[in-house]
Amino acid sequence: MDVMKEQQVVLKEIPSGRKDGMYFIISNVDNIIKRSSGKRSEFWDDCGAWVKCASPSTTFIERNGTLLMIVKRQCVYCVERNVNKKRIYEPLQPQPLSNEIIQVHRIYQTLKSSPSGPDQFKRRITWFQKADNLLSDISTNIALAEYIGKFSVRTYHASVKHPLKNVTYIRTKPSVRQRLQHELEQKGVKEVERMVHSETNDDFQQPRGEKQLRNIKHLIARTKHSPSKSGNIADHIVCVEEMTKTSKFVQTVKHLNGLQHPVVTLYNEQQITDIKRFCCIESGSVLGMDKTYNLGDFHVTPTVFKDLSVKKRSTDDHPIVFGPTFIHTNSSTKAYSAFLHDVADNLTDKQLQLLTIGTDEELAFKTAIKRCLPGSTHVLCTRHLKQNANRHMEDIVGFPLNDRQEILDLMFSSNGLVQKTDVDTHQQRLNQLRAVIDDKDSTVCEKTFRSYFDTRLYPMLKEHVIDPVNEGKIKSTWTNNNSESANHILKSATKWKLAELPKFVKLLHQLVTSEQEERCRSLRNMGNYRLSERYLHHLVDFDYWGRMTEEQRDKKTKRFLTDCGKDHPNMMYSIDGRRTATRTPSAGRKPNQIRRKRAERSRTPSKTLSAKRKL
């Protein structure tokens, strides 16, 4: 206090250089403004990273020209006394007013890179908070910075992982950091770096490096695009519940017993119709499911399938489209069953028997599908099965790479176990695979792969891959890549940022609506898609489309969106897909001709046969 009473030079900031056993009087105006807005005080120096040990505050009042330390107990100011080795708090009479209180704030810090011991380098920052009429010879706009101990050699930050790749750590000045943040809001990292280098050579006026600039840039982008604080999760749930009354896309919001948050089911009537058209038919598209993370404070499980009515012009393949989508925070069987029940309620028993649904190995998926979609075919992704088998052989059994690859080839290659074959060939491949596994197991000590293969892997392959392949439900190498592509579409739509629940629902609705509109453009041979061969009879000339009335267009579009396509066995298509023709196998034959057209040839009666007839 005596030091702060003396008339000394008030520095704007703590000067650079060694500070062993020194003290400085610095301006505290900027920190007063920060504390008034709820921010922390910041006292810059060039020593490095400090560890905050304590920041006590002591309260005084001025009585009879002297300072009396007081404490506040149960909202009453008291004087602390020690009587018989016990602390006793005596209330002050009368109680002091707020403008009579003097508070002394202190911050104790230890240099992070300084070794512990009696010479450990420490500092203490002290400032006063009081009314102007109290201790008039001490200003509240100044602070005292004291340094004790021995300053060690400058070093890198103590928390770095690769010290050799880092430079000496010196904290950036707050004024410099604020300026960099202002510049990075409008300019790029490289541009700001070049600008600072061209203006000054002072290291204290420059950033530590490019990484610091990139971190500031990332913080600006995250703050700018962070979800708005328009409400908490309860407000978002209420908003989505209200959508069920106004939107045909939000079907149900269910509160299940045992789950903290409700589950939301999203789809429109056209998505259900498309599932019936493209998934619930012979050799139809597989309805894939996969859970997506990092879209918000919830999980998203969309269903995807391929639209067989159109093809992408760029790849000449059927596009991936969204089906019903499930939003949840719990991944239990109970949660998935609530969603799949909503889907199953829209399908008949015959359609369920034709439906093929594909997932990964998640147990909750498998149980819910068996419970809610009886009669449907459940297939598993061979890519996930292959990865899990390889991980088990590597981490648990300990097979080398060559042995693992040999076993995986016997299961998943073009001549592997999962390919479509007859019963005898399949049994031969299975016996060969088991013999190889037994041979590899003999080289390891403890756990073997044979038990995992017989009890877990092969039963899953048999039920969810091999049997569906032999029945013609899927190809032998079916993967859930369509769901992975859909997950990428969702994250790209949210710009890889977390989204609030109501905003995500609206965004998904826009995606589905835009997707359906783009497919309808193929009716007039426009847009990214073209009609596939089985739907070419819906093609309308562009000029004729312009002359159609709105009612005629709606009728034409509705007929297209509900059609399952024509599949005539003798229908032939041109290479460009614009012309169809019916093949007529009997055309060009003679009446009553039995042999093939190539094998039949014209014959003339022989001369001997004519002579015999004359006789």
Automatic annotation (TrEMBL):
Residue segments, region Disordered: 571-615
Domain of life the protein comes from: Eukaryota
Record's protein name: MULE transposase domain-containing protein
